[in-house]
Fold:
Amino acid sequence: MFKPPPAVKVSPSRPMEPPGSSLFNDHAADKRERLKSNVGYVKSMISRATPAQQAKNEKEFNDVVADYKTLRNLKDYCVHVDLDAFYAQVECLREPKYTRLPMAVGGDSMLSTANYPARKFGVKSGMPGFQAKKLCPQLVILPCDFKLYHKASWSFHQVLSKFDPDVRMAGLDEAYLNLSNFVADAPDGYSMNTVAYDGECQCNRPRKDDITEDDEVISSGDITCTICGMAQLYFNCTMNFSPGIDGMIRMLRMEVAMRTNLSCSAGIASSYYLAKVCSDINKPNGQFILPGDNDALDTFILSSPLKLFPGIGPTSSNSLAEFGIKTVADLLNHKKNLRFMVSNSQYYLLTRIVAGVDCPPDETEESTNETDNGIDSGKTVGTESTFTPTSNQAELVSLIRSFAKSAIESAKGDGVTSVGILFVKVKLGSYDVHTCSQKFNEQVPLTNVELLQNVSETLLTKFIAKQGKKDIRLLGVRYGELGMAPLSKVQTGLKSFLNKPTVGGRCVKRRKLEENTDPVTVIDLE
Structure:
């Protein structure tokens, strides 16, 4: 175990801050100073810009966005599914009392997630634990248990893969699916036999609130929960799902609830990027569909705050806000100066946001850089996570090997078959970020899991040996120079899944409930 920091002497009039707070505040102060300096430099460049330069910038922006918009495919049904407060939900399955108490997962230095009772106090992911406790003194903070979360994530993936065999995991708690082919062939609708629950006990899903007026309750009664021992109501019912994407996504969320006992939210749009934005709109346990219509798309995009979009973090949003840019509509009012404000990669990200598409118009130059041998030299794929700072090398090695394997699964979901370079990201307890890399002499197939795990471990241990025994709060593994397999858009998994009559809450084609279904089986936490 690592030693706690030494006690700090303080005057009686000033309460002692929790461990880690000074580091965080110093780091935040440094970031503010850098932001102030950068903004001053950009403003000086803008003041020296000529009208001809600004006119050229505005024309370039308009041309790039127009090119991007030609890539819109309004017939696509891209879906982003996100488990709600994932780590916290899984901890509640292990200890149901935390369902009703403000609880977060992480440590005093950084929270990985917080449950919804805690969020009512303003506690949120990425917040230092000591700040969260100021907002909510009764907050319970639990340490991360990645072994448990990987197990729950696997169950989540198993459900989604039945709806789309090519499902792409983007971390443990979120995934992307494409149901376009399916919706085109959707029948009149589906029915699902299941049991819903109500009462003070929150251990089982789906809940009574998930039953709609289109569903049919067959019977109900009182039972005692076998998990927490509290009384609860049960409702044997038939859930009826309307044809089309709305009914299909509701069916997917109910299937996740039954098979994992976890709630999830979903966003549906014509691009994966917008689908991810949409999945946050009706959280928790909800869904939002952005209509596949150009006017609806433009209205939604222009009215949205920039900070909602993936890739626009606090640093970027705060920097742009200094110039009065908070929404996408604001961005359009600064087209002539945008080139001065952001880097080249940020510029193309922002123009993609305006256009509402996933990838640039010229993939060979701006996106994939894929060569004739099928190697994508411009894209990387991987995973990372924040945890309670530790210098325990055995723990860190276990985490990096686990992340290396998770990154492999994410890469496979993107159609990657081999990698040419491996990156390890390390964020120290001081918030300083470092990246180590290993370039391979030849492409390494993703089937060689042990080799990729060993290289990740070696990079980390060499870094630790060089830096000394310091606390680490984040680790990540990413793969680059990706060898790509031809992508298949054929989706057969959901059709066979839905057309196969089964018991225990599976979907069947518009048939009545023949017998009461058993209570759901949740993920094994042992």
In short: The first strand starts at residue 78 and ends at 83. The CA atoms of residues 3 and 143 lie 17 Å apart.
